[in-house]
Amino acid sequence: xKIDPEKFRVREDxxxxxxxxxxxxxxxxxxxxxxxxxxxxxxxxxxELQELLYAHNRYSLLLIFQAMDAAGKDGAIKHVxxxxxxxxxxxxxxxxxxxxxxxxxxxxxxxxxLPERGRxxxxxxxxxxxxxxxxxxxxxxxxQNIPEEHRDHESIWDWRFRSIREHxxxxxxxxxxxxxxxxxxxxxxxxxxxxARIDKQEKxxxxxxxxxxxxxxxxxxxxxxxxxxxxTSTNDCPWYIIPADDKKNARLIISRTIIDTLRRLxxxxxxxxxxxxADLQARRKELLDESN
Length: 292
Known about the structure:
Elements: H1 32-56, E1 60-67, H2 73-80, E2 89-93, H3 99-102, H4 108-111, E3 120-124, H5 133-136, H6 138-142, H7 156-173, E4 176-184, H8 187-199, H9 210-215, H10 218-232, E5 239-243, H11 247-263, H12 274-288
Parallel strand pairs: 1-3, 1-4, 2-3, 4-5
């Protein structure tokens, strides 16, 4: 069964009700072995496209992952990008901002981590935290040293959505292609995964009691995500809502979405000039004429 990423894409300026978006769908694989085979095909294809992206050196790719706790962001990044050359890929995980970062605008710390041309950048959480967790926890906003005249809670989110749209539009027009993934996990599946982190000793290190505090705020987070998608999913920089209750299926959808995006770029390997071709032939002759 063919994976069509368009089925998971959020259309521009479309009002979203996450309750109507599935967290589990029929799998694109029939067995564990078939899943491994499909993912291997995807990672091989992605590796080839990464090399072309690097050689072409006109575009960069930014992948943004957002989700509730235990949705599988880390695993998706690990498995989907397993075939990528580490020299051409950068992964950044954004936690609570530092004092230095709080002394700048909310886009500053992520802008410093943007991928160079020819490279793939991955944001495990991102500047979208500023319209998600900060919106759910308004006390965080108070610590951001924003001028009083711009701290109006009724308008600040619209301003931040506008800043994000314009920021991403600027990046797109300068060659950075942006794909945004929301791993859509059901509340019941999150409960099961958190319990597994408690019950299985090898997973204890993953458990954070703070996850339970955030879980109690689930409705507020869903409302924040819905508003975020409506205002920041654009034709050039779309959001994809990925059913995440099945980790394997989610990885296949994510990898196919990345591949299709890269395939649409007009990329090619650099063609040598006549002078470069002549020099290559001269160097070839030099090698062949070497005495053993």
